[in-house]
Amino acid sequence: MAPESDTIFRPDLLAGQVALITGGGSGIGLGISELLASLGMHVVIASRKPEHFDVARDQLLAQGLSVSSIALDVRDQERVRTVIDQVSQQHGRLDLLVNNAAGNFYAPSATLSPNAWKAVVEIDLYGTFHCSQAVYPIMKQQGGGRIVSTSMTLHYRGWPQMAHATAAKAGVDALTRTLAVEWAPERIRVNAIAPGPIPTEGVRKAFTPLPDSGIPDVFAAATERMEQYARDRIPLGRWGTPRDVANMVAFLASPGGDWITGAIFVIDGGEWLAKS
Fold first, then answer.
1. φ and ψ at 51, to 5 degrees?
2. Sign of dihedral through CA atoms 266, 267, 270, 276?
């Protein structure tokens, strides 16, 4: 694992701006929250579970960063609208929405329950649409804004026992491209990021295969086995980190992303290209 490097961005790059990050209290979302706040943004961490956003908020406040938190279940469309209106009114603007909330787990497609399918699709795909739709009038009124949604790479090649997640994330890709074209006249840039293998604690739990599934449990393996996987399967030779993903979000939020919309950025060290 490569260490988290110092940021390449100037500290005041995003000063005065406001971001709402769903699922921003842990894993990749926390990495995004931390970097954006360090660049001058006020970051609102939204999560369904207080135990996620409370700890994250306090951690970032202790670093002297400008952050707040709010409870949000992205599946609840009315709650989404209420929260986003509240954030906009409280801070006077909303410059960036990061749709990062997700729910994934391994399950055989033949026996996947309706509730299991519904839960993941509602969080990953419906939640992305609910939040994007809710910020549209705010960003339109203020003359523009940016939306970055979290996708994945597994649906590019098919991935056993992840039908619910791959279908939802394929929908996120399609939604990103459609909204980018539809909302471009309002200067709303809509892009997505597709992280590869980043072994956060959430990933370790979500991607632990069922017994006898035949899928290697690389996250429960010894450190050497994980390092060997990276050497053999990831062309750049290491696992990713939340900072690797956060750097792209920061770039898209910056003036450098002014002419970028409808793009899905793969951030995986080349893993999806190399693995059969």
1. -65, -20
2. negative
The amino acid at residue 63 is Q
Give the count of beta carbons closer than 10 Å to the beta carbon of residue 170. Answer: 16
- Sign (positive/negative) of CA torsion 8, 14, 15, 21? negative
**8 A C-beta contact, residue 56 and residue 63:** no
What does the block give as tokens for 28?
Answer: 């990749």
Alpha carbon distance 124, 138 (integer Å): 22
**How far is CA 159 from each of CA 10, 23, 107, 118, 176, rounded to the nearest angstrom?**
39, 24, 11, 18, 22
DSSP category for residue 8: S
Q: What is the 3-state secondary structure (H, E, C) of 177-198?
A: HHHHHHHHHHCEEEEEEEECCC
For residue 192, the cross-strand partners are 149, 264
Catalogue the E-assigned strands of the chain.
18-22, 42-47, 67-71, 96-99, 145-150, 188-195, 264-267
In angstroms, rounded to a whole number, what is the distance separating the alpha carbons of residues 248 and 148?
Answer: 10
- With a cut of 70, list the residues of the chain below it in pLDDT: 1-6, 201-224, 275-276
> Could you name the CATH architecture of 18-211+242-269?
3-Layer(aba) Sandwich (3.40)
Cα(188)–Cα(118) distance, rounded to whole angstroms?
29
CA distance 123 to 126: 6
pTM of the model: 0.90
In one letter, which amino acid is 160? P
Give the DSSP letter of residue 271: H
Taking only the tens place, the pLDDT of each residue in 184-202 is 999 999 999 999 988 876 5
3-state secondary structure (DSSP) of residue 67 = strand
Short-list 96, 172, 94, CA closest to 128: 172
